[in-house]
Amino acid sequence: MPNLSQNGCSVWVTSSTELIQTPTAVALGKFDGVHRGHQRVIQPILHKSADTERIYPTVITFLPHPQEFFTGKTRTLLTPLDEKVRQLELLGVEQLVLIPFNKELSALTPEQFVEQIIVEKLQASRISVGQDFCFGSNRSGTTRDLQVLAAKYDIPVTIVPLETHEDDLPLQKDDTRISTSLIRQTLETGNIEQANRLLGRPYTLIGTVVKGQQLGRTIGFPTANLQLPEDKFLPQKGVYAVRVSEINQPDTTLTNRWGVMNIGNRPTVNGTYPTVEVHLLDWSGDLYNKKLQIQLEKFLRSEQKFDNLEALKSQIQLDCNTARKFFNRVC
């Protein structure tokens, strides 16, 4: 696979084992979501070594997602590549290595994985993994196995306890682990506040503004139609209070703006496919081709069909008022 661009970030991203910057301090895992648990796993590799040798804090994950490889089914992600890189950059990670997950890799024994990947390719000086990390063929290698195998090469392994939550979540009655699957389930119910607590940050959509039907302009609520990565996981359909900023070439008038976002098929106008549209409160201007970051703060209501455009217009005004009250309360 070819080397991937750095997406305008300071994180070096590669899917070629020949282009890895070495030596490394390595955090191993899937890291979809870069949630609170993932952040704890990453922290140990950020600690500066007493050695004078340059060591690159590196996150190692797999492409495609192992579940996608084994099932053959496309999987949507909480953090597609571009977004994952941005989150890792904020944490202080300097390198993201996407190990091609294929038949050959999945067949490696734990011993072979450590020798060929950890030692030879990554030249790891230290490793950090979550308590539930498994590796090697049939996921046969445990964190204890990793410690024993890595010790043969004098590589210390930090095993990070699972991060837990205190929310009363009906989705996991006896399991308080923070996990990607739990966050996905929480987003599917529209419980944005809980999802954001589990993530340790607002759930975010990043997309480019493209031309839509421009229906919003005709009823006084112009919207930005967002084109998102195809593999981006979308929460429950409906209307959200959001914060909007431009990225890459920031417009100072487009920083942390309040807005109302709709995710859905637009049943009032007989829409047949899902769209993501954002109306910025108290702002006007040309948004076409701008890359926006949308942070979801509160779920306002489910998607619904109205009898006519006038009724839709009235509801959008109510949505805007509700969003303003919410932001005035939390700001």
UniProtKB/TrEMBL annotation:
Q: Where is the Riboflavin kinase domain?
A: 198-328
**One Pfam family here:** FAD_syn
User: Which reactions appear under catalytic activity for this entry?
Assistant: FMN + ATP + H(+) = FAD + diphosphate; riboflavin + ATP = FMN + ADP + H(+)
Flavoprotein among keywords: yes
EC primary class? transferase
Q: Which pathway is this protein assigned to?
A: Cofactor biosynthesis; FMN biosynthesis; FMN from riboflavin (ATP route): step 1/1; Cofactor biosynthesis; FAD biosynthesis; FAD from FMN: step 1/1
Instruction: Provide the GO biological process annotations.
Output: FAD biosynthetic process; FMN biosynthetic process; riboflavin biosynthetic process
Annotated EC:
2.7.1.26, 2.7.7.2
Which controlled-vocabulary keywords does the entry list? ATP-binding, FAD, Flavoprotein, FMN, Kinase, Multifunctional enzyme, Nucleotide-binding, Nucleotidyltransferase, Transferase
Q: Does the keyword ATP-binding apply?
A: yes
The entry lists its GO molecular-function terms as:
ATP binding; FMN adenylyltransferase activity; riboflavin kinase activity
The family assignment reads:
Belongs to the ribF family.
Classification via NCBIfam families: PRK05627.1-3 (NF004160), PRK05627.1-5 (NF004162), ribF (TIGR00083)
The free-text function statement in the UniProt record for this protein reads:
Catalyzes the phosphorylation of riboflavin to FMN followed by the adenylation of FMN to FAD.
Q: What is this protein called?
A: Riboflavin biosynthesis protein
Can you name the source organism?
Calothrix parasitica NIES-267
Q: What is the lineage of its organism?
A: Bacteria, Bacillati, Cyanobacteriota, Cyanophyceae, Nostocales
